[in-house]
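Fold this sequence, please.
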Amino acid sequence: MDPSFNPTTTPRGRGRHRAAHRPVLAEVARAATEQAGAMAGRGAVVAAAGSGVLLSLIAPPAQAAPATEISTSLGGSPVKGALNSADLNALTAQARESVAAAPMVSVATDAELKVETSTVSVVSAAENEEYQAERAAEAAAEAAAERGASVVSIAMRYLGVPYVWGGTTPSGFDCSGFTSYVYAQVGIDLPRTSSAQRYAGTVVPWSEAQPGDMIWTPGHIAIYAGDGMQIEAPVPGKSVRYTSIWQSGPTFIRVG
């Protein structure tokens, strides 16, 4: 110890001045360290330089907020931090790297864009009504053809069933009992007798007859199978058969 030092007389101002600043710097450094972790998730940048502390807060890209100045006290003097040119350059470099790493879509120079076009036609109400009527007639004809094919298919199942006068079941049929039983399976109810079945539908010419139409002659009725053939329960002593049309001048009747 300097023998000339007298603690009661030697000025201690300088020592007090130095001692007063060290705790402040330590506190600021400690606070900056603690805040760095908390602010990292918000894009904060904390840096210590020289005898002061520079705090700069950079808003995350999603917020797109301007740089915010944060001031702290160092010996009574404020120290401010802001986004400087070095920070901007660093962000710009990162943006360029992100764009360069992004996937690129390339299109050939000779690529052509083709757009399909369709013609729109306008028809009158009368023309539309006529068109709708034609469509309805076509749909009805298709349905009749399908139904007629079903009638023939069902009738063919009973070939060989014996003729029984007044019979209406697969144990025995007469002519009208056979037709009424077959048509009932496609949802068409027919009168019981052949004379009544004559008026159960619409008469069509032989040239337009389709499978599934009925063939009527006085006292007898059968099912048209197409190509000049029919399915019938003929007379006592015979059975249901598939045969050519033998009747003279038959009437074709479309039902359903």
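Residues 1-26, 36-80 have pLDDT under 50 and may be disordered. The two ends are 133 Å apart (CA to CA).
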